[in-house]
Amino acid sequence: METTKKPGWEYIYSETLEQRVAYHLGTGWLFCSDGTKYSPHELSLLRNIKLPKCVHDVKKVCGGTIVKIEKKEPRPSEKEKQKEHSEKQQSNTDENGQPYIF
User: Fold this and answer.
1) Could you read off the pLDDT of 71-87 as tens digits, one per residue?
2) Residue 43: phi, psi to the nearest 5?
3) What counts of helices (H) and strands (E) characterise the chain?
4) Residue 56 near residue 36 (C-beta atoms within 8 A)
5) Is 87 in a helix, a strand, or coil?
6) Are 40 and 29 in contact, with CB atoms under 8 Å apart?
7) Is residue 78 one of the residues assigned to a domain?
8) Longest dimension (CA), the chain
9) Where are the alpha helices (DSSP H) in 1-102?
10) Rounded to the nearest 5°, which phi and psi values hold at 13?
């Protein structure tokens, strides 16, 4: 990244990323001195949190895009599925494990 300031850019030192960054006022893109860049959408996702340095390091090495992850209900494990299935089967059996005849 050039040290010469260009119109339409804002230059700051990021304590979190430990480097100088340039923010393009027109497009909303952020360019880091190590070559990593963040889109306006990524920046909006990161607006209210402090980006862990390790996330930046992974993005620097692997590229990729930071995305929002929605919290989902945990999927039952195989053991939980088997237990549920077993409980359903047991409700159709008598105390000896024999199926009810209807």
Assistant:
1) 877 787 888 877 776 66
2) -65, -35
3) 3, 4
4) yes
5) helix
6) yes
7) no
8) 86
9) 40-46, 53-62, 78-90
10) -100, 125
Convert the pLDDT of each residue in 41-50 to its tens digit.
999 998 888 8
Within a domain: 74? no
| Lookup: tokens for 4 | 């010469």
Cβ atoms of 23 and 12 closer than 8 Å? yes
List C-alpha distances in Å: 74 to 28, 46, 71, 91: 36, 25, 9, 26
Residue-number span of the structural domain to which 33 is assigned: 9-62
* 1 domain-assigned: no
Q: Is residue 93 part of a domain?
A: no
- Is residue 99's pLDDT more than 80? no
Looking at the structure of the chain, the number of domains it has is: 1
Q: ∠ at Cα 70 (81, 30), nearest 5°?
A: 150
